[in-house]
């Protein structure tokens, strides 16, 4: 691995071995060792703007931690939700109910007599 890092980054063996020991991966070691060349046109490229969020460092740290936690919860929820979706694909077995056909006649009980009882009478009616 040290030979590969030496060849790609153009450094000596000792520097390549230190980079591999520090970064553990060949591509990370090479990336750390390669120096970006200075280009004349870079003076015309504006710097990346900084956004002032108006928060203190503590608030930014809490927001960053909250975002990390919400991402973890969303990952767990999406896995659990995908498992329930597979269960919902199978329709549940429902007992069938015999409903009357439109051409069959359904007999309903007749309504009570249309005459209303007298308010003074002690008569009880069934509904």
Quick synopsis:
With 127 residues, the protein is mainly alpha-helical. 47% of the residues lie in helices and 0% in strands.
Explain this structure to me?
Helix 1 crosses helix 2. The protein has 4 helices and no strands. The chain has 127 residues and is mostly helical. The protein is 47% helix and 0% strand.
SS class: mainly alpha
Distance between the termini: 95 Å
Radius of gyration: 40 Å
Uncertain spans = none
The coarse silhouette is elongated
Total beta strand runs: 0
Q: What characteristics describe this protein?
A:
0% strand; 4 helices; mainly alpha; 127 residues
Q: How would the blueprint of this fold be written?
A:
Layout: H1 2-9, H2 13-23, H3 26-33, H4 57-89
Helix pairs in contact: 1-2, 1-3, 2-3
């Amino acid at each position: 691995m040290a030979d590969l890092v030496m060849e790609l980054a153009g450094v000596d063996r000792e520097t390549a071995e230190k980079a591999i020991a520090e970064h553990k991966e060949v591509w990370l070691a090479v990336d750390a060792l390669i120096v970006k060349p200075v280009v004349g046109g870079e003076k015309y490229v504006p710097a990346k703007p900084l956004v002032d969020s108006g928060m203190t460092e503590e608030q930014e740290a809490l927001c960053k931690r909250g975002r990390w936690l919400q991402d973890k919860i969303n990952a767990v929820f999406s896995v659990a939700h995908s498992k329930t979706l597979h269960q919902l694909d199978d329709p549940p077995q429902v007992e069938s109910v015999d409903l009357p056909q439109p051409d069959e006649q359904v007999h309903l009980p007749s309504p009570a007599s249309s005459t209303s009882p007298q308010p003074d009478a002690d008569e009880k009616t069934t509904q």
